Amino acid sequence: MNTEPENASPHDDSRRTFLKQSTLLTAMALVPGPVVSAAEAKLDERVAEAIEQVPLSLKVNGKKLKLSVEPRTTLLDLLREQLHLNGTKKGCDYGQCGACTVHVDGQRVNSCLSFAVMHDGKEITTIEGLADGDKLHPMQEAFVKHDGFQCGYCTPGQIMSAVACVREGHAGSEGEIREYMSGNICRCGAYSNIVAAIQDVKKGGQKV
Amino acid sequence: MNQFQYSRPTKQQAAIDAVAKDPNAAFIAGGTNLVDLMKRGVTSPQKLVDINRLPLGKIESQNNGLRIGALALNSAVAEDRQVREKQPLLALALNAGASPQLRNMATVGGNMLQRTRCAYFYDTTMPCNKRQPGTGCGALEGVNRMHAIFGFSDKCIAVHPSDMSVALVALDAVVQVSGPKGNRSIPFADFHRLPGDTPEKDTNLAPGELITAVDVPDGPFTKHVHYQKVRERASYAFALLSVAAALDIDGSNIIKAARLAMGGVAHKPWRLTTAEQMLVGKPATEETFRQAADVAMQGAKSFKHNAYKLKLGPNAIVQALKTAAAA
Q1: What's the superkingdom here (chain B) (predicted)?
Q2: Quick one: pLDDT band at residue A4, thresholds 50, 70, 90?
């Protein structure tokens, strides 16, 4: 990377570019390489400097939020540490255990393996968003009924995955449920109870 | 994790320019492997170019084949009606990979660019020529039970981890890329590299080149297909070894065309063309499949801990072909 700050673009007269570059040039004396190269790159898109926070719009559990986050914040850390939604658990933090499973635009994902800024404009549902006030979601009720949790640590991820499993149409048989729940690890081994809970919800035919 | 600069361009050329001009820049799509590598300090890009706003997610029929956009999600491709009808082998391979959550994030372009899961590559305290050229290979004399039996060098014996890529190489897919010097097509078989003296290079992509789509030509492999994946638990684990098999069988049980590829055996998805040629014109029987498996395994060499692959390989090939024929 070049370390010499050069004039970013003396001939570009758009107001947006001017504002962006003048901000960057002012900051250059104070900041490290990445920001300097950001100015040099003359990107026609919004650029986030390493020292800056990136604006981020999310709808989390039905609530619209305007946030500002550092690019390396994962969706999981944003939920837990900035939004204080501690239901979503940090297990392995490397996409291997499923404890951090949430829904993004209705699809289940591992929140530990994506940067929050990558979900700008998306709708996030966490375990806190599943119940209707004090009325538990059918899957939560089924987990209670079938004792689908032991230590409980994997439970939020298991339930988010279980709901998705039914919605996706992959809860047709015990084998299919086991296959489609394989991204969620339970160290206590509550698997058979979890499968029973999911089968119960599937058979009940309720809207999940 | 080190700090990085982040941008999310909406124009393809802007994304390409941003990465081409900076050797410390990287594209990010699903992030399922890159974020992992960044957390572990295996890689530390100073600039991430988020390509999720580029319109590259479509799956469409065109020019006697399917064009699958680079940003199509693994789950979307596996569930796509056209893919399931025309290329069921691809759907099987995709569903054998990772977990449902990861398949909802992982993209087709990213899947083929994922890095090896060799433990020495991930452990930054160990030597690894792929992570840090010139430091040596920890796996060569180390725990090498997951490692290559074909095409390795004394610099690297790691294997490519993608299941999807094993199906794509069997199906004669073509990778469409766009870069600073324009667009080009790369046959899938030439996309990944053998390690040689430069194991740090996984693919033949040039700096700044962006995968835009994968083309899979229509073919006769719509019925007799199977993806046999052997792993240490029933689901959600990388392959010890895998086999993609596709057959076209006529009314008198004679094989008219065959495709065969293996995963978990080499630095790239390993196409078995000699065995394919041997299968054509022969009856689809276990004896034929056994002969093809013997041909396929010629030249395989094992290390201290992966000698089991020499026996597992032919058995998995026979099983894959038998299951495909019976489908």
Answers
A1: Bacteria
A2: very low
